[in-house]
Every structure is written in C-alpha cells, then in structure tokens.
Amino acid sequence: MKIILGVGGGIAAYKSAELARMLMQQGHQVQAVMTAAAEEFVRPLTFAALTGRKVLTNLFAIESAIEHISVAQEHELLAIAPATADLIAKMAHGLADDFLTTLCLAFTGPVVVAPAMNVNMWQHAATQANLETLRKRGYRMVEPGRGYLACGMTGPGRLAEPEEIVAAIESEARKRHDLEGETVLITAGPTQEPLDPVRFLTNRSSGKMGYALAEAAAARGAKVVLVSGPVHLTPPRGVEVIPVRTAEEMRAKVMENLGPAHIVIKAAAVADFHLSKVPEQKVKKTAARISLELDPTPDILAELGRKKDDRLLIGFAAETQNLVQEARRKLESKNCDMVVGNLVGGADVGFESDQNEVILVLRTGETIPLARASKREIADRIFDQVLKLRLALSAANGR
Ligand code: PMT
Fold it and tell me: Where would you tag: which of 59, 122, 123, 206 has the fewest CB atoms within 10 A of its CB?
C-alpha cells in the first residue's frame, strides 16, 4: 500500500523512524513528509535512508507548485505520527501553512492519527475538542499510551508503540470497503416517555455508542440509517439520522426502515415502561404522594427478532450483574445473532462515557470479550465480528 507518513515536531519523532522501517518491512511504500519542527528532532536523511525516497518538507521548495496534490492523489493512506497538539489543531481547523497540513486538506483517503504530547497538553480541553472533531470526520485515532514522558511527567501522552500504529494502519486500509453495499440500521440514545406536557421519564444514554457504530459503518462504506433518541451529538458524516422521542416513535421508524437493512444494531436505551395515557395538562404539585401506573413499551428488539429473515440482528444488554448469562438469555429469547453485553453503573464505561468494555455473545455459542477502548474502536471491532459471524452462519447453513 502507498502510505504518506506525516511526522510532527515532537520528541517522539525518533520513534517514527522505527515506524517507517516497520512499514517498509511489511512491503508498504512510504513517503515521509516532515514539518519544519520535526526536522529539529530528526534529520530528513534518516527517513530518506529508511524509505529510499526523497523526504518532502517545505511547501515552497519542491519541483512543482502542485506536488502536494499529486502526492495526495498517488497515495492510499495518510498516517500522522507523532501528531503534535499543534498539528492536531491545524488539522481540526483546516489550517494549511506547510506541506504536511496542506496535504491533509488535499487528501481524501483514510487517515490514521497517532498523537503524542505532554500529559497536560493532552488533557487540555482544546486538544480534546480538536481530537473529537477529527474522530467525527472518521479519522482513526491510535490512542497514546500512558507512562513516563520525556518531560519527566507520567500519564497519557506517549506515542503508541510502532507495532500498534502499524496494526491500526493495516486495519484501517483493510476496513475501508468491507461494508460497501451493506445497509445498516442502527438505534441510539435514550427515549423520553412523557408524564405530562412538561415532564418525562428517560435514562442516562448519551447516544455515543450508537453514533460510534454509525460512524464506523459509514467509514467502511455502508449506507447507514440511524434512528436516534434525543442526544447532544453531531450526526456522523454521511449518515441518515431520523430523530425520535418515545419508544413508540422509535419502533415506528425502525419498522419503516427495516426493509432494505442487511444488518440491524439496537444500541438505543429504550424505556421499558411509559404512561399509556398522558395527561393533557401539567400535573399540579399537591402535598399528597402520587404514584404512576406504567405500562410496558413495545419491545422493538423482540419484534425485530420475529421479523429477522436473513438479516443480522444485534442487540445490546445493559446489565449491572450476570452480564454473560443475561446477554445469552436475550440472544435466545429475542432471536438475535449477537448481543453486545456491557456493564452499566460502573466507572467510565457504558452510559455517557467515551469508552466502553463489552462482551459479545454470539449465536454460534462463542463469547468474545472486547477490552476497554474508545466507543469508536469498540464499534469497529463489533463490525469485525459481525462480518465474521455472517460467514460462520452462512457456512453453517451451507450457503
Ligand atoms: O448511549 P451511551 O451513553 O453511549 O451508552 C451506551 C449504552 C450503555 C446505552 C449501550 O451500550 C447499551 O447498553 N444500550 C442498550 C441499553 C438497553 O436498553 O439495554 P437493555 O438490556 O435494557 O435492552 C436490551 C435490548 O433491547 C437493547 O438492544 C435495547 O435497544 C432493546 N430494547 C429494549 C427495550 C425496548 N422496549 N425495546 C428494545 O428494542
């Protein structure tokens, strides 16, 4: 594969030389592009010797004034390692004041970003906001490691190991087309069940898991329809978002869009109960206690299980205990092909968190744990397993 390796001006630039060597060893063609700051840490000659190609640096000291366009067009993947806070900010805001940042704007293929910086810079709100912008654009992040940093501090901010960056590059390149032609129907977020014109029942779902699944599917070439409860998230690029509020509205839109779907993933936290008859006027506060007569909402997943046909149906299980058993029970009772079990109520996974840690329970009987990672990474791994599962089920059915 033809890879552009963008090198930012951080002390971790020395590790990019090892990354370049490993990519060459895997048979890839590597074009190094360095920022002026990067040249302060590592000489271009190092990369020229490792890649066998002239290193591109300054936008205005090259043969043709449009070389950044031809370089962008000739290569299949752009990897930035290390991605400094400055580079990440420029990429997020579309600044193009040197060869590498100009190239980032001109490049239309998959982008892998491996950040590296001081822990305080990493945790700064500006950096985190810029990273979120890049994630929403479908850039693949290789999260920095934790540990001792060149500045003497310890914490997150170390450039990921070259092996991990190589794996992400190869995974990203492989994945770009493996959902092409697929229509994926996803639900995300909470539902809101009115108690009167002013009040409603809801839950803590932020929609991040479902939106990460939608983003991952779109980035891999799928047509994505996202039926979403009320959330505060930017719709992922290239995804059709259908907003709903109540479980009944969600059910209606899911069934309306079920026909063309090949894969259905129910990540939404649908309320289990609602008021069947909502008062037309606001309930006035009285001294007396009030009690609510709640009825079950439609079980959308169970209904999908009854209408599955040859679609792949993936449910979620949000549990506080007995995760695998509960996920397996839901898989069987709702005729799912896979249930993604995640513990909720714990620290920094599940509801609202940017990370998740799940156990996949499959119709084949397998149970596959996915270690804690960003919801976008978890989403990609879920689709990896969904595609493998479909092959296994087809083989089992002799198709
Ligand atoms: O949105 P985030 O903040 O990122 O949090 C992610 C999440 C924790 C919400 C998500 O990972 C998750 O676990 N979603 C499922 C939450 C849920 O409703 O779990 P459950 O075990 O109560 O429901 C089981 C399955 O049935 C789910 O697929 C759910 O979508 C579906 N269901 C539930 C009730 C109902 N009336 N209809 C349904 O289809």
Answer: 123
